[in-house]
Design brief:
mainly alpha, 83% helix
Length: 162
């Protein structure tokens, strides 16, 4: 299945797998793909960046749900039995619910810049009860910009090396 649809589907699949398996690096895949095909213009760069971001965010929703459900696991509940641990979790929940802009900046910043690691941010966002819509939307925007920049950089290098 060669062609544009195959490119889109392969980027989507690799992005999804990379969201779940840290050893699969979507940036490296996009860099090589962009350098080989020279991305074929800005529209294609933005499209493949969006597709990669969608694949990543669908995968990160798995980590978000793991974080949200982890508070129900018996060994986690035992750790939260101490007043100190309960107070700490409560304090962080209040901080994020009282300051949704700060929580949003952290999600966007992690999705775009990678620090703190976005997989960890996804789990913590689920644990703290962040809105899944806000998590997905801000993560998607950050990832889209990140992956489009990777593709644009690969296109620039491919052009430079010709």
């Amino acid at each position: 299945m060669p062609g544009p649809l195959a490119d889109v589907l392969s980027v989507l699949a690799v992005a999804f797998v990379s969201a779940l398996v840290p050893l699969v690096n979507i940036e490296a895949y996009l860099g090589v793909r962009g350098a080989v095909s020279a991305v074929d213009g800005a529209e294609r760069m933005w499209l493949l960046g969006l597709v990669a971001a969608l694949g990543q965010m669908i995968g990160k929703l798995v980590w978000y749900r793991v974080g949200a459900s982890s508070l129900e696991w018996r060994w986690v509940r035992r750790r939260l039995e101490t007043p100190t641990a309960r107070a700490r979790l409560s304090r962080w929940r209040e901080r994020t619910s009282d300051r949704p802009v700060v929580a949003g900046v952290v999600v966007f910043g992690s999705a775009f810049g990678g620090l703190p690691p976005f997989a960890i941010v996804a789990v913590v966002a689920g644990q703290l009860g962040m809105s899944v819509t806000a998590f997905f939307t801000l993560g998607l925007l950050g990832r889209w910009l990140r992956f489009s920049a990777v593709l644009g950089g690969a296109e620039w290098l491919a052009t430079l090396l010709r």
